[in-house]
Amino acid sequence: MSESTAVTHSALAEAGGSHHDDHPPYQRHHFASVEQQADTTNFAMWLFLLTEVMFFGGLFTAYLIMRNWYYPAFVAGSHQLNVIWGTLNTLVLILSSFTMAMGVWCAETRRRRGLIVCLSLTVFLGMCFLGIKTIEYHEKWEKHHIPGIRYSVESFVNPASDPDIAQYHDKPLAPDMAAKTELYFFLYFAMTGMHALHMIIGIAILGYMIARARAGAYTTGHVTFVENFGLYWHFVDIVWIYLFALLYLISRHQ
Amino acid sequence: MSEANPQQAQHSETEHHIVGPGVYVVILVCLLIGTALTVAASFVDLGVWNPVIALAIATAKATLVVLFFMHVKYSTKLTKLTVIAGIFTFLGLIGMTLSDYISRAWGRW
Fold first, then answer.
1. pLDDT tens digits along A62-86
2. pTM for this one?
3. Contacts with A61 from chain B: Cβ below 8 Å
4. Which of chain B's residues have a Cβ under 8 Å away from the Cβ of A69?
5. What is the predicted ipTM?
6. One domain for residues A83 and A53
């Protein structure tokens, strides 16, 4: 039934165009109603997010298995991460999720200024997150903890030489186990790096959305784009919630 | 939009549930408390329970984000089914991968 309705709609639209008055301009002609259009795009966005779950899920599974195989190396590697920076970044990202959710609300209730403020705050908090991540990456660079030819196991075969991990009283690792810390950092950079890439893409899209919102978009009742971008941003937040627990927190007493 | 077709606009209003700032603030506070709890728990030596508690709190936080920030609590059955199917498939794939790893090469890891 709805199929035939859609056909009639588009046929009429091509014939005269007066039929456009029956539905808002943002409703595509192959949808029977605005609700159907919104539900369809929402479903599509969730399907995309499920592919993202599988993508990050592969990395999480690799981490789970490798951590069990090379447990002492992964514990020692985890001790190199700074819990204070990690906690700060978690707070920043949760706040950015909040401002994003408020942005969706502003769009839904047609508050243009509020929407622009919320999206801008989300960009700002996203930048703060990446800034803190850069500080952490830079420390890894300075200590030769980035996998590759410059990688150094000094902190792991001789923990006493590294004042940063004095609080953990780590025992020296045998050279073959210490070499596996490189695997920990490989996964650390793969997981946080892919997460940061998602943030960078998100910030770029936020910039596009702010420009369009300033021109009056999204506050005319057509909120699909803001809403579905919100889903993406919250998903990235969830990935970090797990990364924070797995990379920073669970190895502090081993 | 509402002027062009008030009936449809009204219908859309009932279909599309708008989650307000009050809910978002409550969820934000819960997420901040969750973060404080998980960091505090990481400073206590709980042996094998450290990862369990950290993952449990992370899952609680993720559930709040999915239900309220991502509006799943207020969305269609199709969306709810999609989310549940995704989680189920993800856990199934992890479970099958791990069952493979723990059932071969015994004693080597």
1. 999 999 989 999 999 999 999 999 9
2. 0.88
3. 93-94, 97-98
4. 109
5. 0.88
6. yes
